[in-house]
Amino acid sequence: MVKLFSSILIFLFLLPLAFSDLRVGFYSKSCPSAETIVRRIVQNRFNRDRSITAGLLRMHFHDCFVRGCDASILIDPKGGKASEKQAGPNASVRGYELIDEIKKALEKACPLTVSCADIITLATRDSVALAGGPKYTVPTGRRDGLVSNPNDVNVPGPTFSVSQALQSFSAKGLTLNEMVTLLGAHTVGFTHCSFVQGRLSSFGSRDASMDSALDSSLGRTCGSSSRPARNDPRVFLDQNTSFVFDNEFYNQILKKRGVLKIDQNLADDALSRGIVSGFAANDGSFMQSFANAIIKMGRIGVLVDNAGEIRKNCRAFNQ
């Protein structure tokens, strides 16, 4: 009994140390210019392409929801060996070249010091702030993973019900409130017609949960079953303030203007509707909740201390 009690004490003492190297200002001594470099390069990209916020948010989410926030999503397939990039849900993830640009600058300033996993986290944070979202600090000290397998990729799909999506989020230690909050990142997101046409009357599948004006608008963009639009056009998930990080997404889905089925389900399901209404009525509440939720998401499955590695090239393992 004494041995058991001693073991528990040792475990409780050691548990916080698992995150001892994940802290705000991790690079303050080893690479003091790291966060400034990331911010500058993200700012330059945002000035040319405001949609990069959506791209980075999606990359961060898809990375953390697979093996944890370890930059495994960045690995290129090589020599017949597949990687997460080749999984279906990751086919339209973008922003890789921005991560490359940041990594190149950081390697010049502080070789083999700043992880690719931290670059994704910091770049996402900076892009959210640039789009009008919350300004928050994130702990750093993540290390890069050594595995990237397309078979591991299993993220919530665009047609998921609230209960299906919640199962995925709960498995990562996230609550219903945090799920509804993080899906609010769709306020700056977009999708492609191929993910929407199953809900449109022009494709013979009128979804009664979609506002008729939105149905007509999307039909003009996406075409019809007899003549679908070429090149699978993009459609914004927030049709009102498409490039602004705000709570308008929630107001839109309350008006049945959710483009993706999973988004509209948030407003229609009794389980989540109250949270949606609360965020729609209070932008400040959403902003604070989002900052808290994405910081928590950024801790999923992190590698610290001597686990993993610090990649020299974000697209390839060092070995």
Automatic annotation (TrEMBL):
Positions contributing to Ca(2+) 2 binding = 187, 238, 241, 246
Which of this chain's residues are annotated to bind substrate?
156
Q: What are its GO cellular component terms? A: extracellular region
Cystine residue pairs: 31-110, 64-69, 116-314, 193-222
What is the enzyme's class at the highest EC level? oxidoreductase
Q: How is the cofactor bound?
A: Binds 2 calcium ions per subunit. Binds 1 heme b (iron(II)-protoporphyrin IX) group per subunit.
Catalysed reaction(s)? 2 a phenolic donor + H2O2 = 2 a phenolic radical donor + 2 H2O
Q: Keyword Signal: yes or no?
A: yes
Q: What is this protein called?
A: Peroxidase
Ranked from the top, the taxonomy reads: Eukaryota, Viridiplantae, Streptophyta, Embryophyta, Tracheophyta
